[in-house]
Automatic annotation (TrEMBL):
The gene is Impact. This is IMPCT protein. GO terms for biological process: GCN2-mediated signaling; regulation of translational initiation. It comes from Aegithalos caudatus. PROSITE patterns: RWD (PS50908). Gene3D superfamilies: Ubiquitin Conjugating Enzyme. One of its GO terms (cellular component) is cytoplasm. Residues 14-116 form the RWD domain. InterPro entries: Impact, RWD_dom, UBQ-conjugating_enzyme/RWD. The lineage of its organism: Eukaryota, Metazoa, Chordata, Craniata, Vertebrata. It comes from the Eukaryota. CDD domains: RWD_IMPACT.
Amino acid sequence: MAAGDTGRAQQQIDEIEALSSIYGDDWCVVDEDEKIYCIKISDCLDQPKWTLCLQVILPPGYPTAEPPIYQLNAPWLRGQDYTELANSLEEIYVQNIGESILYLWVEKIREVLVEKAQSSHPEPDMKKITEEVDEDDGDDFLLDYQPIQEDQIKMLNYMTSESQEDEELPPIHHGNPITDRRSTFQAHLAPVVTARQVSR
C-alpha cells in the first residue's frame, strides 16, 4: 500500500513539473502541501477574448484511484455552458482512468474557448450581459404593470407614489475578475438613490 502511495505521489510530482514547464506563468501553485493548483486558460496567446481559470486539488489517490477535484471559474460560465464543459471533463476522466489527465483537461478547455472565439459568440462583455438582463427586467416590469395601466385610478396612485426616475435601473459598472488562491472576485458598482433601486 505504501509503495502504491509513493508511486502515485511521484506521478503527481512528475505531472505538476511537466505542466509547470508547459504553461509557465499561467500555471500557479496555490498550496503545495494541500496539492492545490490553478491554471489560467485562454483562447489565444496574443489577445485572448475568452478566459477561464481551472482550479484543481489532487487527492492522495490521484491518478490511479481518484479523480482530481476541480472548479471552473469564469464570469461568463454558467448554465448550459458550465454543464457541457463539466461533462466533457468527466468524460475525459472516464476514458483515461488511472492516467494523468490534467493536460487533457486544460487542452479540452482551450479547445472549447477557441471554438467560442471562432463561432458567432460575441466577446464575453459583462456590461453587455448586464444590459441584456436589465432590458429583460424592463420587459418584465412592463408586463407586470400592464393590468394596472387599464385601471386609471390605480395608475394615477402609482405615478404619484413612485416617480419614473425611481424605477430606472442605474448603470452597473463591472471590474475585471481577479483570481487569488482558490477564489475569483469581481467588483460591481452602481449608484442608487432609492431603496427600490437597491432591491431591483
